Amino acid sequence: MGTDSSLPLNGPLLRRLLEGTTAGIGVLDTELRYLYVNTALARMNGVPAEAHLGRTIGEILPALDAREDVLREVLADGRPRETTSSGHTRAASGLERRYWHGAYHRLEEDGAVVGIVGIVLEVSASRQEQHDLERSRARLALLDTAVTRIGTTLDIDTTCAELADFLVPDLADAASVEILPPDATTVVEHPGGMLRLRRAALAALPTLREAAERLGRPGSDVQYQRTSQIRRSLETGQARILNLPTDAQLAVAAPDSDRVAAYRAMGMHSALVVPLTARGETVGTVTMVRVGDSPAFGNEDLIIAQDLAGRAAISLDNARRYTREHGIALELQRALLSEPTHPHPGVEVASRYLPAGRSALVGGDWYDTIRLPFGRTLLAMGDVMGHGVEAAVDMSNYRSMLRVVGAADLPPHRVLRQLDTMIAGSGEGRPATCLLALADPARGRISYSSAGHLPPAVLGSDGDTRLLTVPPGPPLGTGVGGYELVTSAWRPGSVLLLYTDGLVERRGEDIDASLARLGRLRLDVDGPLDALLDTVIDRLVTTEAPDDVAVLAARVRRRRDL
To answer: pLDDT class for 331, splitting at 50, 70, 90?
Structure first.
């Protein structure tokens, strides 16, 4: 028996237990090198226990697929796993292939990962059973790979392309994905009895790509006659195989009879159509074809294709639901986020709002201007925490509250205090950050107060950008209060910039580094404010924004422009 003095395996009772069991037991370090092997495992492997120590599984058993990928996953996340391995060890056997079932657990000591323990039993099987096991194992491995490659985003076309690309060339010589309109859950017949679907994705062997695209490129609409296989599959929810059809059969099963010649020119002899169904709703179909010397589709192909289609359909349905909710929230936010009220004529204002990219729902970013007596204007920038329809609704409510409270002509810190009390008192609204700036052109000054919002920036006439220090109080809705007032000069020609975090923040980057990027901007502020905002956004939002971007710029209007 092999042991390692660092492992607590020398107790008499534990020794008898480990050496007396018929299960193979091994302990490996974090590099998957053997630290311990019991007698049963040494016998299974056909290698003395001592000869295992310090060597990896691959070094001891080069003819065994030990699923080291699964073992590394156990090491990485600590979640126990069971798996089946197959192949041959160094022990004599008359079987064409042997199978073992193993359970693996991570070992930790004083909070540190030190290795992994495996308990292994050999699975006895007939030749047919072995064949079935191997086939099932290959199918599961394929599906495991599909999980990591299909549905990586919430974009419908990307998911469809991932599915088609996954199928070619391992399962098909060409594959296409057709989907129903976004809001359709049943087959809708168009005039003339034709069904129209959108081809969302197409993949093909290089030699077939040009011919396949002639029948419909991704993004194009394809019409299907009533007798087509795709239409029948959509209506019945059943997959269909079409092997070695005659021209007459193919003319009936094809989208339209005019395609027969094109199919024959490609050398197509076998097709498999599988509906994409998730949560009781059909979202489209996936079609696979084989040409030339490729074997015809069989039942095993059908089973694999249905499993893949089922998983892909869930991802597509999630993408459709996301697209639908994203569209509703975006339209709602645009409707609620109307243009700011007119500021005082002495203040020039411009604003921009950019919805987030595909990775998030729209949020609760908002801005406003409130005209006050004596030529003053209250400028506001806010951000409701969270995303989606609820955040957009809360954003509209807070904006309405601000217009009521702000019209009372209170200093900014008292406006924030009242808003905080009102939102906290409702008990329903989400927390929100907010920055208020009371612009007073006649006196050449601006007073600021912040409820946890990012600092304002001043773009000077000399081209420099300065970030002002405004103590950030608690977000609105906490009921804590404690907002401070800061006043600074507002020099002629300078531009005040209020913004939400989507303008500057980057994933994995410290906020100070993000703000420093804004502070390094050197811009000409003499031109139109709209053009200035476009330049700011172009400089700072260089990739698809992970969060909404709202920006408000204000400048003292020159007398000749009044």
So the answer is: low
Taking alpha carbons only, the member of 421, 356, 429 closest to residue 390 is 429
Collect all residues with Cβ–Cβ distance below 8 Å to 543 and sequence separation of at least 6: none
Q: What DSSP state is assigned to residue 334?
A: H
- The span from the CA of 489 to the CA of 475, in Å, is 26
For 180-217, list the strands marked E by DSSP: 189-190, 194-204
Lowest mean pLDDT among 327-336, 382-391, 397-406, 435-444: 327-336
Q: Could you give the C-alpha distances from 513 to 137, 456, 508, 521, 538, in angstroms and in order? A: 49, 16, 11, 13, 18
Q: Classify strands 377-387 and 363-371 as parallel, antiparallel or unpaired.
A: antiparallel
Q: How many CB atoms lie within 10 A of CB 100?
A: 21
Mean pLDDT of the chain: 85
What separation in angstroms does the CA of 342 have from each of 59, 83, 191, 364, 379?
77, 67, 51, 22, 11
Beta bridge partners of 174: 204, 289
Confirm if 89 and 61 have CB atoms less than 8 A apart: yes
* Helix, strand, or coil (residue 296): coil
Return all residues near 146 (Cβ < 8 A) that are at least 6 apart: 166, 308, 311, 312
Helices (H), 473-558: 511-519, 529-540
> Could you write out the three-class secondary structure of 207-270?
CCHHHHHHCCCCCCEEEECCCCHHHHHHHHCCCEEEECCCHHHHHHHCCCHHHHHHHHHHCEEE
Q: What are phi and psi of 487, to 5 degrees?
A: -120, 140
**Which helix (H) or strand (E) covers residue 447, if one does?**
strand 445-451
Compute the distance between CA of residue 556 and CA of residue 562 in angstroms, rounded to an integer.
10
Task: Find out whether 275 and 233 touch, Cβ atoms under 8 Å.
Answer: yes
| pLDDT number for residue 189 | 55
d(CA 381, CA 344): 17
